[in-house]
Amino acid sequence: VQEQLAQDTRVCAYDRAGYGQSEPGPMPRDIQRAAEELHLLLLNSGEEGPYLLVGHSLGGLNAQVFAASYPEQVVGVVLLDPPPQGWMMGEGFPELRELFRQQTAAMEAAADAARASSDPEEKAQAAFLETVASEHEELFVQSAQQVGAISSFGQLPLTVIGATEPDPRFGESSAAFRQFWISESRELAVKSERGRFILAEGSSHHIHLDAPQLVIEAIREILLESRI
């Protein structure tokens, strides 16, 4: 996706704090903090806007809050299967929220074990595990409220791309949850007067891997509109 888009415009990717080679950031890891850190990163890097934001999954929440916080710097947003807002706010599927809480507790325990390890490679994983655990925990607390507070994106070009394939990790709830997720994504696109929803047929949650050309075309369409 990045290689093809680089033929049209400048493309930048980054690792959030605690990921990849980025240093860990302060806790808790909520969406507003991530958006503010991205804003600071762009300022310090000298990458001048305006920006077209592309976010997958949790990154799609970051992109929404960034666009709402710094609207004058954003010319468009493309979201790839962002988590359903209603579920984050407590609507339906409590068993899946409990599953996430269990995963969060497991990651916190793994972070503690890694921090106490004498193996340098294991020790290096502690910050990453702690970061992901905090992101998951905040998903149903501060992050949900921060994303839920966005009532409208006005006339900002917004494209939301949803997946069709259920995630087997969600067990018996997977098919129903996927349909709920699609419905939530459709509603999200309506938050912009220039919003649209695209269903990536046959795609899993990893739309950029399963349907890269669809993603590229959606981004290029907004690029042509904004001419950046």
Q: How many extended strands?
A: 4
Strand content: 5-15%
String of helices and strands: HHEHEHHHHHEHEHH
Distance between the termini: 17 Å
In the sheet with the most strands, the strands line up as 1-2-3-4
List the uncertain runs: none
The main pleated sheet reads as:
4 strands, parallel
Walkthrough of the structure:
This protein is α/β, with parallel strands linked by helices. It contains eleven helices and four strands, in the order ααβαβαααααβαβαα. Strand 3 (158-163), helix 9 (174-189) and strand 4 form a beta-alpha-beta unit. Helix 2 (31-45) packs across helix 3 (58-69) and helix 5 runs antiparallel to helix 7. The longest helix has 23 residues, at 94-116. The two termini are 17 Å apart.
